[in-house]
Amino acid sequence: MKRNMAMLLSVVLLGLSLTACTSSKDSSNDLKASPKPDSSSTTPALSGDDLAFSKFPNPVDVHIGMVVDPTDKTLPEGDSVSNNQYTRYLKEKYNINVIVDWTAATGNDFKQKVSLTIASGKLPDGMVVDDRSFMTKAASSGLLYDITDLFQQYQSSQVKDIMASTDGRALENASYKGKMVSLPNITVDTDGVHVLWVRKDWLDKLQLPVPKTTSDIEKTAKAFMDNKLGGDKTIGIAGPSKNSFPYSTFLLSSNNMGGFDPIFGAMDAYPGYWLDNGDGSVSYGTLTDNTKNTLALLADWYKKGLIDPEVGTRDNVGDPINANQAGIFFGPWWNGGYGNGDSFKNDPTANWQAYPVYSDDNKWNAHMKTTGSTYTIISKNAKPDVVKAILIMNNALVRDEATFDLSVAVGWYPLRNVMAAANETEYEYAELLKVLKGETQPEDYNKPNSLYKLMYADAKKVKDVIKAPYDDLNVSNFNTANFGDFQRLYSIMIGDRPFTTIPIDKKVYSVTYNQTPTMETKWANLKKMEDETVLKIILGQAPIDSFDKFVKDWKAQGGDEITKEVAELLKK
Amino acid sequence: MRKLGHQKHYYLMLLPGMVWLVMFSIVPMFGIAMAFQNYNPGAGLFKSEWVGLDNFKYMFQLNDSKTVILNTFIIAVGKIVFNLLIPLIFAILLNELRSLRYKKLVQTVVYLPHFLSWVIMSTIVIGIFGYYGVVNTVIGMFGVDPKLFMADAGIFRQLLIGTDVWKEFGYNAIIYLAALTGVNPNLYEAAAIDGANRWQLIRRVTLPALTTTVVLLGVLSLGNVLNAGFDQVYNLYNPLVYSTGDILDTWVYRLGLQNLQFSLATAAGLFKSVISFVLIFISYRLAYRYADYTVF
Question: pTM for this structure?
Answer without folding.
Answer: 0.80
